[in-house]
Design brief:
eight-stranded mixed sheet, 24 strands, alpha/beta, elongated
């Protein structure tokens, strides 16, 4: 995920723009409604359209797609391009126009190709982002006379005065003033860095009814309890609020203007930079050496200077920016076809490098389709009363309806003739939150002769319900919740868990209705309940889960389950899908461990059960400190922290807002097979980048090594500067199709990470192999063809030009695979065609007017017999060195 840095210099000035919402903090909700010319029935549609035109879309300043001309200029912003431009300027000043033209051409080709790839990827990314929608629930009216109706609209369509509805999991879409709130807890970590949520409430409940000076206090206004800010998210509870400020007029928007454009480099970008400076450092050492050798041995310092420039060009991987961009862009498009939306191109490398995937079990290992299989009394027999109370609770709650609620409602409505909602009306509710792990509704029975009692119905985690029950309906009789009842209840639920069921408990209590006041129910009333029974749900394993886990493990990705569910159910599901369990840790055990103790067992633990959101994030951080590249897949509110802390945050398009915002990659299908295909594409993309780097590094070093030796003994330059530049240009063109190359299965089976030392080692060991055959070419040209005098220099230059270009082009095929090229591993058709064209072009140039202009002469016919003998021996020796290298260092690319 991209991290940002705030510019403090102008922050105080921008904050004043966001004081609009704070001005409403100390007024009553009715006053705020009047100020914004709105009502609890919502805005009229025509008024909303007018306000949208007046205030603009609800969008903060963000990284907008660059203009085409800005992106074109940025395509030339690279250290290697600067080097080439500098060399072109020097060549122009020394009146070497041929070198100037070739260098300019190389700069233009590199920059334009990079621009085309980045522009296409930007357009593709914008189309992909359009697939990810974020909406808000508003109340609006068709006319002044009509009543308000709830509807979902894109958050960018919100305007000041809109009435919005908030529930657990929602991201707050604008700066808002609360009108009503019920047990509302909001996480403001995005603005304050404080992990603990804060409670928010409306003015009536809090007793605030007078003007305050919060607007003048820039320190404490974020803690004002009656207002919520864009970018924060609802942890629990429900609320109705009126939008006060949108877009850049929000507090978040005022900060965003200072944040845009200041990004911390990702690990991928840092890796590219380290490689770039390795090659630049190598060039800074080798070019002066070549210059001095030629100047001293030939005595012509000007020619030596021009030759040094040519060597510098040869050592410059000017295609690196284009190759990297093309690979990432192509990868993102292919991954999109695999139903994987990449929000940041640089996340692709981390995706491929991932060696540990942490995921919840629900929806990944299972169908994410909860079915209510059993409704039981405390003895484990079918209990209709349990079903009735459970239905009332699910039917009347207005918070975050989860899959369990949906299963209860579907079961009652489709499989039974119960219609309890017709006999009860709702009076109040106590929403769900992750701390209590339960929720309650308060109802009143319509056909009740006494008519003087409310019924509080609570359902939730078994342990939590047990703790708030003082009695139980055991054997049809209400009895105290003694140890026998508790242990018998645990026995029934554990047996259900062992069979793969998820179990929640249902309890109730009757509360007399006070005659002199209107009751206001809250968490304090969830006590002294009567335990009724259990609802048992089944989330069947996916048919593809077993295949997906096997595929991920075969590709070096260790799957770990981090879940808030209990360990018994999780163990059962893991067994059914074939995920071998090495160890299980519970949240209560993790809480007692230090980071050092946790690090000792985290690798050998497969299942982390009963985990809180904070504990999930902690597991991710500890895994990363042990050198793992960690992916986390989550879609819930309690996954947001873990998504931020993972190397790759993975979510789905159906996730809650805060999860989608925290993720780097969005899956359009919640399926591990989709994820596995994305991992493979990430590795393929990174593999093609590594190919180019290793090809360039080894080939360049071999050329310099050859030039250094030949310059010391030959009475003339082994190749003219313009010839070197032309050779390098053709070689660069031959590598344009590398992003479209195949990657060996062996490479795809393991997570791949940046290994800068291996690139340097590769350069030192593989580069000199080509020099052996360069020297062989020198010997053949000197002794066989008699090119041993300055008068025969053109023949010598022509012979080495062809051998050098063909050997460099062949190295594309030798290095791209750890196997035998053409026999065991064949390049893709675009690579084969382009390298063949470049090789044919290289052999033909000495026979053309272009060759004459470059200072070359036609080569004798029998030269080509020597050419193929040299190239054949070169391929065989390179393959032998490759096999030795793999045996010694354990890897190739």
């Amino acid at each position: 995920m991209t991290r940002v840095v705030v510019n403090r210099r102008s922050q105080s000035e921008d904050i004043r723009l966001s004081m609009r919402v704070v001005e409403e903090a100390g007024t009553t909700a009715e006053q705020t409604l009047r100020t914004l010319s709105s009502s609890k029935e919502g805005l009229v549609e025509n008024d909303a359209l007018y306000r949208l035109k007046k205030f603009g879309k609800n969008e903060v300043t963000h990284e907008k797609p660059p203009t085409w001309y800005g992106q074109l200029l940025q395509s030339f912003n690279n250290p290697f391009v600067y080097i080439l431009v500098g060399l072109a300027i020097v060549s122009y000043l020394t009146e070497d126009m041929k070198a100037t033209i070739v260098l300019t051409l190389m700069v233009v080709i590199s920059g334009v190709l990079r621009f085309v790839q980045e522009y296409r990827s930007t357009q593709a990314a914008e189309k992909l982002k359009a697939l990810i929608s974020t909406t808000a629930t508003v109340t609006r009216r068709r006319s002044l006379e009509s009543s308000g109706q709830k509807r979902e609209i894109p958050i960018d369509q919100l305007v000041p005065g809109d009435i919005i509805h908030l529930a657990a999991g929602d991201m707050i879409p604008a700066d808002v003033r609360l009108i009503s709130a019920k047990d509302l807890f909001v996480s403001q970590a995005a603005l304050t860095g404080e992990a603990l949520p804060v409670e928010k409430y409306d003015a009536v409940k809090s007793g605030v009814g007078k003007e305050t000076d919060l607007a003048q206090d820039q320190v404490s206004f974020l803690d004002c309890p009656t207002i919520c800010f864009m970018g924060t998210n609802v942890i629990s509870g429900t609320a109705v609020a009126i939008v006060v400020a949108t877009g850049d007029r929000t507090y978040f928007g005022s900060l965003a203007k200072n944040i845009v454009g200041k990004r911390v480099l990702t690990s991928f970008e840092q890796g590219v930079n380290r490689v770039s400076w390795l090659l630049i450092g190598f060039m800074a050492v080798m070019v002066p050496i070549v210059f001095l050798i030629n100047g001293i041995t030939k005595g012509n310092w000007f020619d030596a200077f021009l030759f040094g420039i040519s060597i510098a060009v040869g050592l410059t991987p000017e295609m690196l920016p284009m190759i990297v961009t093309a690979n990432l862009a192509k990868g993102s498009v292919i991954m999109a076809k695999q139903k994987v939306v990449v929000k940041s191109l640089n996340a692709i490398q981390n995706f491929g490098a991932m060696d540990v995937l942490c995921t919840d079990k629900t929806g990944t290992l299972t169908l994410d389709k909860i079915i209510l299989e059993r409704h039981l009394d405390l003895h484990g027999n079918e209990g209709l009363e349990t079903l009735e109370y459970g239905y009332l609770n699910s039917y009347y709650q207005t918070g975050l309806k989860n899959l369990l609620d949906t299963a209860v409602l579907e079961h009652v409505e489709l499989k039974t003739k119960l219609r309890p909602a017709e006999r009860y009306i709702k009076f109040d509710e106590i929403p769900f939150d992750f701390a209590r792990r339960r929720m309650s509704v308060v109802v009143e029975e319509l056909d009740n002769p006494s008519g003087n009692k409310h019924i509080l119905i609570c359902k939730g985690a078994v342990e939590e319900i047990f703790n708030i029950c003082s009695h139980a309906k055991y054997g049809g009789v209400i009895t105290r919740m003694n140890e026998f009842v508790r242990s018998d209840g645990m026995r029934v639920t554990q047996q259900l868990n062992a069979e793969g069921f998820r179990v929640i408990a249902v309890a109730y209590k009757e509360i007399p209705i006070p005659q002199d006041s209107i009751p206001n129910y809250g968490v304090k009333d969830e006590c002294d309940l009567i335990l009724v029974g259990y609802l048992a749900f089944l989330d069947p394993p996916k048919d593809s889960a077993s295949e997906a886990i096997m595929a991920l493990q075969e590709h070096g990705v260790n799957v770990k389950i981090i879940t808030g569910d209990n360990d018994i159910v999780t163990r059962k599901i893991c067994q059914e899908v074939g995920l071998e369990i090495d160890g299980i840790l519970l949240g209560s055990q993790v809480e007692k461990m230090s980071d050092e103790q946790l690090a000792d067992v985290v690798d050998t633990t497969t299942v982390f059960a009963k985990m809180s959101p904070i504990q999930k994030a902690r597991i991710i951080r500890v895994l990363r400190t042990k050198g793992h590249t960690v992916g986390y897949m989550g879609d819930g509110i309690n996954d947001a922290a873990a998504l931020r802390d993972a190397d790759v945050g993975i979510s789905v398009d159906t996730a809650v807002d805060i999860a989608k915002e925290s993720a780097d990659i969005i899956l359009l299908e919640k399926n591990l097979m989709v994820l596995e295909r994305g991992v493979i594409e990430g590795r393929r993309t990174f593999g093609n980048i590594l190919k180019y780097l290793n090809m360039t590094a080894s080939s360049n070093f071999g050329n310099v090594f050859s030039v250094m030796g030949s310059s010391a003994v030959l009475p003339f330059l082994p190749m003219q500067p313009i010839q070197l530049l032309t050779q390098n240009l053709l070689y660069d063109i031959s590598q344009i199709t590398i992003p479209f190359d195949n990657v060996d299965r062996d490479f795809l089976r393991k997570p791949q990470k940046w290994n800068v030392p291996n690139i340097g080692r590769f350069m030192l060991f593989i580069g000199p192999v080509s020099s052996i055959f360069d020297y062989a070419t020198f010997i053949v040209m000197w002794f066989v063809f008699g090119a041993d005098t300055p008068e025969e220099m053109k023949l010598f230059n022509s012979g080495w030009f062809v051998v050098g270009l063909l050997s460099q082009t062949l190295i594309v095929h030798m290095i791209r695979t750890s196997r035998w090229p053409f026999l065991q591993s064949t390049a893709s058709l675009p690579v084969l065609l382009l390298t063949a064209v470049i090789m044919v072009t290289g052999m033909a140039i000495p026979f053309t007017p272009l060759g004459t202009a470059l200072g070359m002469v036609p080569l004798p016919l029998h030269y080509f017999g020597w050419l193929w003998a040299i190239l054949g021996a070169y391929c065989l020796l390179t393959q032998a060195v490759k096999m030795w290298y793999i045996r010694i260092f354990g890897k190739w690319l």
